Amino acid sequence: MKQKLKAQMKERVASIAYNEKGFPSPFLFKDLKKAALKIIEAMEKRTEILVVGDYDADGVISSTIMAKFFASLNYKHARVAIPNRFRDGYGISKQFLEKHHAPLIITVDNGINAFEAAQFCKEKNYTLIITDHHCLQDDAIPDAYAVINPQQPDCHFIQKEVCGALVAFYLCYGIHQLLKKKKAILASYCV
């Protein structure tokens, strides 16, 4: 009896956590659906989107995933900027945002400790979406519109130790899933 219940529970969890392609659901990430909906809304309004990457291999791949995703939708109002490690330091910062900004800013592979940048975005009325995989600083999270990071509390993604590129991939995958559910025609995003 105990084995049977255990098997049923495992089957139910698997059916909830995985989609038809065998990937874990992107919506297991805390804030991913909220972020995806905001990005779709921005795309519908043809809002400028800035993706802020990182200069290491994971950050460059994460940035490329986002750039290729927007290009696949023929969305021409998205651009990528990667801080210069010598001039700008690591990740998104207030100084970097004074030079590079947009109404919607998405970080990839950085941002989980960018408290000053998050405050700057609030003051300037920029929407900030942070995607990262690095550990939280004292369990504190920047005050952003959405934070997608498997390390944060209440994130139910099945794996905590992932790279930033995987987080970026799942954000794109979540947007794609929501566009399909809306029965949106991807060609409508051509500009």
Largest sheet: 5 strands, parallel
DSSP summary, beta strand count: 5
Helix content estimate: 40-55%
Distance between the termini: 59 Å
Count every helix, treating DSSP H or I runs of 4 or more residues as helices: 6
Principal-axes shape call: globular
GO molecular function: exonuclease activity
Protein name: DHH family protein
InterPro entries: DDH_dom, DHH_sf, SSDNA_exonuclease_RecJ
Organism: Helicobacter pylori SouthAfrica20
What is the topological layout?
Layout: H1 2-17, H2 32-44, E1 49-52, H3 57-72, E2 78-81, H4 94-99, E3 104-108, H5 115-124, E4 127-131, E5 146-148, H6 164-181
Your description of this structure?
The protein has helices at 2-17, 32-44, 57-72, 94-99, 115-124, 164-181, and strands at residues 49-52, 78-81, 104-108, 127-131, 146-148. It has 191 residues and is α/β, with parallel strands linked by helices. It has a single domain, classed as inorganic pyrophosphatase (n-terminal core). Helix 2 crosses helix 6 and helix 3 (57-72) packs parallel to helix 6 (164-181). The longest helix is centred in the C-terminal third of the chain and has 18 residues, at 164-181. The chain starts with a helix and ends in a 10-residue tail after the last helix.
